[in-house]
Amino acid sequence: HTGNYQQVKIWQQATAQAPALLDRALDPKADPLNEEEMSRLALGMRTQLQKNPGDIEGWIMLGRVGMALGNASIATDAYATAYRLDPKNSDAALGYAEALTRSSDPNDNRLGGELLRQLVRTDHSNIRVLSMYAFNAFEQQRFGEAVAAWEMMLKLLPANDTRRAVIERSIAQAMQHLSPQESK
């Protein structure tokens, strides 16, 4: 039973430390959390969210922590919960779409792609949405869609934006995959 006691003690410590760890994670001047601290933060946040399951921002933050840890199930579950609570919350929708498109499950990838298409339709001036949509389309070999999204981004970005060079290279790469009829 000492193993169980140790696990309970770790859980209680994580729950107690979560607010301070979250403050540190959100403070750009503070030292970044290491992986063990991120894991404790995730455990503490899950406990807090059990007590307050309607906390959309908490679920979004847990999704971000899950992504940072490379834990797809934490990220996907947290973002899915936030999205179910408020489908109009762009952070929840975009986080959920990103988690789905990074999944190893092709069905998740398809759902993520559909969600991204929906997000682009409702907000085609959001650079993050367009970027994620373009890269997802490229990965799914929908090169024409990728090019269209990247071209939209170029129209929205200022002339001196450093991301333009990467986008232009991405367009050139996608254009190589298009048939001559598609690239006209």
Structural account:
The structure is a single chain. This protein is 77% helix and 0% strand. By secondary structure, the protein is mainly alpha-helical. The chain has two domains: 107 residues, Tetratricopeptide repeat domain (Serine Threonine Protein Phosphatase 5, Tetratricopeptide repeat); 62 residues, Methane Monooxygenase Hydroxylase, Chain G, domain 1 (Up-down Bundle), CATH 1.20.58. It starts with a helix and ends in a 7-residue tail after the last helix.
Provide the CATH topology of the largest domain. Answer: Serine Threonine Protein Phosphatase 5, Tetratricopeptide repeat
The top-level CATH class of the largest domain is: Mainly Alpha
Q: How much is the radius of gyration in Å?
A: 20 Å
How many helical stretches?
9
CATH architecture of the largest domain: Alpha Horseshoe
* Domain tally: 2
For the biggest sheet, the summary is: none
The H-and-E topology, N to C, reads as HHHHHHHHH
- Beta fraction of the residues? under 5%
Reconstruct the topology from this structure.
Elements: H1 2-26, H2 35-51, H3 56-69, H4 72-85, H5 90-101, H6 106-122, H7 127-139, H8 143-156, H9 163-177
Helix pairs in contact: 1-2, 2-3, 3-4, 3-5, 4-5, 5-6, 6-7, 7-8, 8-9
